[in-house]
Amino acid sequence: xxxxxxxxxxxxxxxxxxxxxxxxxxxxxxxxxxxxxxxxxxxxxxxxxxxxxxxxxxxxxxxxxxxxxxxxxxxxxxxxxxxxxxxxxxxxxxxxxxxxxxxxxxxxxxxxxxxxxxxxxxxxxxxxxxxxxxxxxxxxxxxxxxxxxxxxxxxxxxxxxxxxxxxxxxxxxxxxxxxxxxxxxxxxxxxxxxxxxxxxxxxxxxxxxxxxxxxxxxxxxxxxxxxxxxxxxxxxxxxxxxxxxxxxxxxxxxxxxxxxxxxxxxxxxxxxxxxxxxxxxxxxxxxxxxxxxxxxxxxxxxxxxxxx
Length: 308
Ligand code: 13P
Ligand code: SF4
Known about the structure:
The chain is α/β, with parallel strands linked by helices.
């Protein structure tokens, strides 16, 4: 029996659901019940009625699913599936930052730990960040953490001053604009689409900026075009499925001369074998301490409410 068939069988026996992010390996995306961006995954997790949630993504995503489903088992194929952006905002330092700015409303990007979410007033993802910022009354000062690139983009889009935490995603900061411009010269008919975790100089070259789901929707709405895609390369699997006839070129990364793509090492530690193993053994489980979980639930639920 193939691993994929074994996973489907076991999933039914255990009443489990498999949620996967677009950056996961293609074979994992194919085995999942739902593939989506961070918002879609949080929404699916909030509606899950399975006994076990297998989260094929990174740790902060599985934590969010656990916060929304404390009574369910949430398993992650590999606990090493972390996130450089989440790691750039540690609880002790962030608590001190908050204390230094007590009058500020705290909006955090979902790519952060449960402890950081527990210190937040509102959570956002790349697909609803603009809406979340706009939901805060204009006279209230805002702290935005942890992604400085998304933060700068939001400031530019809303005209609203925000205090930014100095964090970033190593994958989205690895794109090389010089190589990108070379690629544009060779492909003058290509349109650049980018994820807002990318740096400002790269975003300036983009025709469309949005979440992974937003980028897929944009490409679907413009099937006749050729695209240079500036986000983690895993997205190309679902994107190409949606627009089989369209040419999709991954944006080039700085130190990557062999393969012109950027991959997130954290997302890629999950494999189909590990997915099977974690479903079989129901571990490793992702747990969040009760006090943290209860505090983190409010800003996540507020986001889900405002995203309806
Ligand atoms: P979205 O899929 O929500 O756009 O987020 C991208 C990301 O960096 C996930 O780690
Ligand atoms: Fe974190 Fe970046 Fe990887 Fe997303 S792509 S999980 S933000 S390191």
